[in-house]
Specification:
alpha/beta; Rossmann fold; six-stranded mixed sheet; two-stranded antiparallel sheet; 8 strands; 23% helix; globular; binds inosinic acid; binds magnesium ion
């Protein structure tokens, strides 16, 4: 669906947009494990603004291709983000359940600002409204793998984003 070259080109643009929006930094880039690691690594290097890297783990009860409504934090931040600029880094926004949950949690920690960057967005699938500031690509309702995205833990290390066909 999206080639490695297209991904890199778009991430350069997102990095420039972040540089434009933040004055000096540091910006806390908080990636959601595991899928967003690849995007985080490339996005952090596409920006000139100083970045600090953190990770959170989420489990959503649901197997296969959809996340259920229930989300749990399985790994929390190691640091306080009070008074800091935060960008949550996600691989794909689908129903919006995961991010609306995380936004609620992080807002309680009193950051200076809180935004979301996602490589992919499937707007047709949204069940919970979430405001996403940085979107790499809007895609149709297809199940995709690669560049961090998995199906049952497989295909994460594909360089391109590919449609999974059964
Ligand atoms: P949401 O809570 O429904 O927005 O789900 C977001 C999470 O579902 C993502 O972080 C992915 O782990 C997973 N997901 C949603 N769509 C896809 C897809 O097309 N391929 C792989 N994982 C997906
Ligand atoms: Mg995920």
């Amino acid at each position: 669906m999206i080639s490695a070259a297209q991904i890199q080109k778009r991430i350069e643009e997102l990095g420039a947009q972040i540089d434009h929006d933040y004055n000096g930094g540091p910006v806390y880039l908080i990636a959601i494990l595991k899928g967003a690691c690849f995007f985080l690594a490339d996005l952090a290097r596409a920006m000139k603004t100083p970045a600090r890297i953190e990770f959170v783990g989420i489990s959503s009860y649901g197997k296969g291709k959809t996340s259920s409504g229930e989300v749990k934090l399985t790994k929390d931040l190691d640091v306080s983000v009070e008074g800091q600029d935060i960008v949550i880094v996600e691989d794909i926004v689908d129903s919006g359940v995961t991010l609306s949950y995380l936004l609620k949690i992080f807002a309680q920690r009193k950051p200076k600002s809180l935004r979301i960057a996602t490589l992919l967005d499937k707007p047709e699938r949204r069940q919970r409204p979430v405001e996403v500031h940085y979107v790499g690509f809007k895609i149709p309702d297809e199940f995709v793998v690669g560049y961090g995205l998995d199906y049952a833990e497989d295909y994460r290390n594909l360089k391109d984003v590919c449609i999974l066909r059964e």
